[in-house]
Amino acid sequence: MRKREEQVPALGDDTDDDPRFVVALARGLSVLKAFRRGDPGLGNQELAQRTGLAKSTISRLTYTLSRLGYLEYSMTTGRYSLSVAALALGFSALGGLAVRDVARPMMQALADRVGCSVALGAPDRRTMVYVEHCQGSSPLHMGIEVGSHIRMATSAMGRAYLAGLDATARERLLDDLCSPDEAGEAIRQGILRSVDQYHAHGFVTSVGEWKAEVNSVGVPILLHGSQPFALNCGGSALILKQDELDDVGRELTRTARLIEQAFGPGS
Q1: Which CATH architecture does the domain made up of 13-89 adopt?
Q2: How far is CA 2 from the centre of its chain?
Q3: pLDDT tens, 157-173?
């Protein structure tokens, strides 16, 4: 069965009547966001499916983005790919995240101790995007690198981020993340259990909820004067066993607190 194509999240209703909101710009950015790691290039039809925009609109946007140098068009395949200019925007953003430089040595030390991967993530609509990643000694790799996206609603990283938000901000996101059906309600209850777990223990765990064969632990990072981030440690259930998650969670929490202290008031 063909895997259902996941669309880029649509523009919110709150943008419809906002005179300051430039819809054309938002649509152009949604085209850039539709490209994913490993894509061999995308045609206008695929971009229309991923963004939910009309193909005629996509044609104008891809033409404009190509003229501006953010997309490259292949005459051979008839597909577009992100150009170096577009990639440079992402690298510039990563370079501006000072938290990566502070967190990296602490993350690598933890990855070496527990033998699994440790990652730092930031929110991107309904997903978390990896902004730093350190691999432990385990020979099993999950294929996740800097720039990868994972679901916010079901991953330990995403649930840790949600747990670190105030109740009002979290409830707004829950309404967007969870559909009003039985499956959505199950996801909502899973998130709320993770919030309770965070308040009780300082971390959240995921046992096969993101992927059946993967266990992980997540902790929010609350930096002074900055958006929240989240730290996670995950690996194959064969390596990171369920009965080890609490110990790893405590180590991950200590690492998160050290990162926060480095960015405390006056730092």
Answers
A1: Orthogonal Bundle (1.10)
A2: 24
A3: 999 999 999 999 999 99
